[in-house]
């Protein structure tokens, strides 16, 4: 195994009835980098994330985190192995405060701790994601964007080595987008490896060290962002989507 590889995915597959949503997908993620997972709508990106985090059982394949296969494990076991995620459709505990939501991440994450330390960490993370004045608010009363921020803080509270972001930048206005991109960079700078599913292409160009492209369940390209986005097969996959949308 390459010493710097954090995650090695091989032969990952998932079928939903007649649909091969993920077909023998493989890629590797180096520690300390930001990887993009891109592709047209319905190409299988979220399903890959669901397989990596145990939300869905895989039909076949492996995903080794520092050599330890995640496939076949439950979401909480995977989280304990220092993999955290955010969801495309945000999931926060609406009746609990922002602070309590983040504390739960710390209390039940990879490095469980006492309440005092959890609260201290939560305050810091809440500040970092830009929710500094909302710690007491019930999470359910936050705007959608703030709920995304909260979900990120809670994911970070679990102390991940690998953070999976599912369209975390979607829906942000241009100013929020700048702040969001800086936040992702700062997460990487503190040593967390990031795999992000994203449709915001200039964020992919700016943030990602490498990009994996999927189309119709298949991995069709992998490489540097500029290289991959100029690949005719990738361009064709996205054009196909536009044509389908126009029809
Ligand atoms: N639980 C499920 N049951 C049945 N079909 C599913 C399920 N989850 C996803 N699919 C289908 O699998 C395919 C891949 O979906 P997936 O959500 O992984 O794509 P995606 O690349 O993340 O798309 P998007 O960019 O729109 O979020 C789609 O055709 C989708 O309808």
Automatic annotation (TrEMBL):
UniProt KW keywords: ATP-binding, Nucleotide-binding, Transport
Domain of life: Bacteria
PROSITE patterns reported for this sequence: ABC_TRANSPORTER_2 (PS50893)
Domain ABC transporter, chain residue ranges per copy: 7-241
CDD domains: ABC_Mj1267_LivG_branched
GO molecular function: ATP binding
Keyword ATP-binding annotated: yes
PANTHER family, per the entry: AMINO ACID ABC TRANSPORTER ATP-BINDING PROTEIN (PTHR45772:SF7), CONSERVED COMPONENT OF ABC TRANSPORTER FOR NATURAL AMINO ACIDS-RELATED (PTHR45772)
Name of the protein in question: ABC transporter ATP-binding protein
